[in-house]
Amino acid sequence: MLLSKACVYGLRSSLFLASHEGDGYISIREMSEKLDISFHFLTKILQQLTSAGLMESHKGPKGGVRLTKSGSEVSLFEIVAAIDGTELFTECALGLPGCGVKKPCPLHDKWADTRDGIRLMLEGTNLVELAKKGKKENLRITEDGGFEWI
Amino acid sequence: MLLSKACVYGLRSSLFLASHEGDGYISIREMSEKLDISFHFLTKILQQLTSAGLMESHKGPKGGVRLTKSGSEVSLFEIVAAIDGTELFTECALGLPGCGVKKPCPLHDKWADTRDGIRLMLEGTNLVELAKKGKKENLRITEDGGFEWI
DNA sequence: AAGTTTTAAGAGTATTTTATCTTAATTTAA
DNA sequence: TTAAATTAAGATAAAATACTCTTAAAACTT
Questions:
Q1: Predicted ipTM beyond 0.95
Q2: What are phi and psi of B67, to 5 degrees?
Q3: Staple partner for A145: which of A11, A114, A140, B20, CB 3.0–4.6 Å?
C-alpha cells in the first residue's frame, strides 16, 4: 500500500474539514461516524495533524478540530508528510540507505523521476480543490458512500 | 514504503541472477550471503517467484535457482506483481474499494495518472538492463556495498 | 460549583509483516 | 548405497501496524 491506513484516514478527514470551512470546530466523534472510522484511532491521527500544526483542536462542548489555514492552502503532501513522513519521497526503491545521486543504485535515476511524479501530484493538489470536486460531482470519500457533502 | 521488504529482496536477487545469466543454478545460500539477506527468508521469497513461473529451482548439490527466461525479457513489474501483487497499480489513493472511472473518489483521476507512471517505469525496465548498468558503473545493490558484480 | 462534553494520552490487543528455526524431501557424488 | 548438499514447507518468534479501551484533562453549561 502506498499510504498507511492512518494516512488515508487523515486525508479523508482533512477533506471533510475542508468542505466545512468556516463552520468552526468539528467534533471528532461526528467525523468518525460520518466517515466510518474508529473514533479513538481517528483521534490519534488528528492529534498528529494537530501537533504538526495543520489543525488546531479545542476541548469541551462545541470542541473539535479545524484547519489552521484555508484548505486551499493545504496540499495533500503536507498531510501525508505529517502522518507517513517523507521517506516515501526520498527512499530508494531497492531499500538502500543513503541511495542518491552520489551513491546511487541501478534503479535510482528512474525511480527518482517516478517518485517526483508522486510528490508533484500531492504537492499540486489542495484540500479545497478536491472537496469542491467531490461535492460538485457527488463523489464518495467513504466505502459505503454514506457520506454526504454539504 | 512503496514495496515490501520481501519485494525489495526479490528484486535484488533477480538482479543478481540476471548478472549471472548462463551460469546455471545459483544457490540461494550464496545469494543470501552475497546480498546479505536472511537465508530462510530469501528462500521463501524465491519460492514465490518460482511458483509464479519467473524462476525455476533445483534441489541437491549444484542446485539453486535461475531465471526461466532471459533477464532482458523480465520486467521489474513482473517481480513486483509476483511478490506484492498488483494492488498498488489498481488501488485507490484514499483506500476506497471499487474506486475507478465508474465510481471514482475525488483524487481518482490524478492518482490514476501517477499510478500509471509507476507501472510504466517498472514495466519499461528489465533485469539485464539494470544489471548491466550496475556492473558498468559499479553501483551497489547491497547496503554495505559488499556485493561485487562479476 | 457540579455535571456533561469533548480532546489527550497511555496502555492494551489484534493482525500483518518480517525473520528464524526445524524437519522433510530431493539430488548429486563418492 | 550412503553421505552431503540443497530447496521445500511448516511452526515459531519478533517487530511493526492497526486498532481498542480506559483514564485524565480541559472547557462549556447550568
A1: no
A2: -70, 145
A3: A140
